[in-house]
Amino acid sequence: MARTDPHSHADDAQPTVTSFHWKAQVDFTRHVLECHVALQLSRPGEGPLDLDTRDLQLHAVEDASGQPLQRELGPPDKVLGQRLRVQLPAGTTGVVVRYATSPSASALQWLEPGQTHGKQHPFLFSQCQALHARSVVPLQDSPAVRVTYTAELEVPAALRAVMAARADGREEHGGHATERFTMPQPIPPYLLALAVGELSARELGPRTRAWAEPGVVEKAAWEFADVDRMLTEAEALFGPYDWERFDLLTLPPSFPYGGMENPRLTFLTPTLLAGDRSLVNVVAHELAHSWTGNLVTNATAEHFWLNEGWTVWAERRILERLSGREASELHAALGRRSLEQAVAHFREQPALTRLRTHLSGVDPDEAFSQVPYEKGYLLLRALEQHVGRPRFEAFARAYMARFRFGALTTEDFCAFCEAELPGALAAVKAEDYLDAPGIPVHAPRAHSERLSALLGLGTRPPSAEQAGTWGPTEWQLYLELLPRPLPEAALAALEPLLPARLSHNPEVRVSWVALCLASSHGAALAEGEALVSRVGRMKYLKPLYAALLGNERYVHTARAWFERFKGGYHPIAQQVVEGMLKKAAV
Ligand code: BES
Ligand code: ZN
């Protein structure tokens, strides 16, 4: 008997749940899902079956014929949730659980009509990565345990339900509708996903469709119009797409991430709707996860770099094909900068800057950083540079073929790499990435002409002519590289150079406002406040609050804004910002 994932009670001596049938009534008044789930086991079991749960209210636990089963709910643990141990009589092949989710289920955000674009109807969405699927369904919530499922969601008839699954139809009865779904491909539980709200769709291509609230859907369809081409380019790189559809759901602004690779239906922040298609690298990233992450999955959160490092590498390969090498190199340089910032941020916890991490007792959401993304990318790029692109591409395909619909650890990766590319790990000094903190001095660097021109400026402002040629990524990179606090005169010289056409680009705005706040440029306070009041994307909340907290004049402003706006933030974002405030002792 052994637990193999520090973040799950799953025990590899027990049968695994291979599929489940889930029924949930979505209750917008009580903010709960009233649920019935029938779990199918990999083999007839006898003795204990340990499942992960968090804040579930259990009504009944039975076998497939309705006989009650003995059960025991363990003590709640902040990271793990609660173990549900069910005693299986010999020969048991299925377990039925009737339960309700908690109004504060960590995977779910229930939005009031006022938090939506249309302001007429409530909205619900899930975010199960990393450890939140267990707050929705009692499962072995480890990425190494794959499941297929069918689902029936009962929702108010005025609303639509979508899932990261195949839609099997809708039936209306009285004031309610039942929507059915099937997920035929086995997924790690963190990819379970649903949303309910006033939703409409626009076709983008034979395999792609944009979903969003009616008032947002046209804008989304325009922004993501090229997604079908993106899918074709990705297939040219990584082989056939295994998930049939690649639909995109644009969520209300409190969605805490840029994107989430829920299979068949990627979830996206509305901040991508910049009106200039400049942020579609996030779509490329989530699409790339269809291979690296969803098909080939990290066995536990300790090997998260295998999901994200590979995906950043794949994202930049897609971007290079769509927009050229200059564009992908600029993104690599921006990534490098964010890695430097992450390493500085973790200077007191250097262990979190290794790729191979030890996270027993640590919440993966709290260990989250750009390190697995960008340091993972650098390791793969170093391997690619060492063996040459054609060989590395063949290696990537062999890797995807070998581990498809499976999970692996860093050790599995190294063994496979050694077999396919003998000597390459040693040649790039892979251990400096995997087990040493910080950025290896020999790590590869991005190169491009535009990048050299930009870096050549140092802290000097660009000429008006040069500034006019910069796209949003160049502006963002330039701003991120500036020292802070920046003298008032330098800020004043820069401000008129920022072109108006970039005013809708939230990446540039956030970089600019964070720089201003760190530099006590009081005129930026109003925009900072507007940003943290409207947007719940953590990538923006973190630098804005960090800029306030790093400036003694604004530490109390940070607490005041948080208290005013936290009600609109997702539970995960609330937890993260609260953690920042506590650390700063305000
Ligand atoms: N899977 C992640 C988001 C995530 C990670 C959610 C860990 C919960 C826990 C997603 O693919 C992601 O990386 N999103 C990035 C996109 C960026 C790297 C292009 C984001 O949200 O910023
Ligand atoms: Zn990702």
Total number of domains: 4
Secondary structure category: alpha+beta
**CATH secondary-structure class of the largest domain:** Mainly Beta
- β-strand amount: 15-25%
The tally of helices reads: 20
Helix content, binned percent: 25-40%
For the record, what is the CATH homologous superfamily label of the largest domain?
Answer: tricorn interacting facor f3 domain
Largest sheet: 8 strands, mixed
Shape: globular
Based on the coordinates given, report the CATH architecture of the largest domain. Answer: Sandwich
The first-to-last residue Cα distance is 45 Å
Bound molecules: ligand BES, zinc ion
The Rg value, from CA coordinates, equals: 24 Å
Indicate the topology.
Blueprint: E1 17-27, E2 32-53, E3 57-63, E4 71-73, E5 82-100, E6 108-111, E7 123-126, E8 147-156, E9 160-163, E10 166-173, E11 176-187, E12 194-197, E13 200-205, E14 208-212, H1 214-223, H2 227-238, E15 247-250, E16 259-260, E17 265-268, H3 281-288, E18 296-298, H4 304-323, H5 325-345, H6 364-367, H7 371-387, H8 389-403, E19 406-408, H9 410-420, H10 424-427, H11 430-434, H12 449-457, H13 464-469, H14 472-481, H15 488-494, H16 506-518, H17 525-534, H18 538-549, H19 555-565, H20 571-583
Parallel strand pairs: 1-8, 14-15, 15-17, 18-19
Antiparallel strand pairs: 1-2, 2-5, 3-5, 4-5, 6-7, 7-12, 8-11, 9-12, 10-11, 13-14, 16-17
Helix pairs in contact: 2-3, 2-4, 3-4, 4-5, 4-7, 5-7, 5-14, 7-8, 14-16, 16-17, 16-18, 18-20
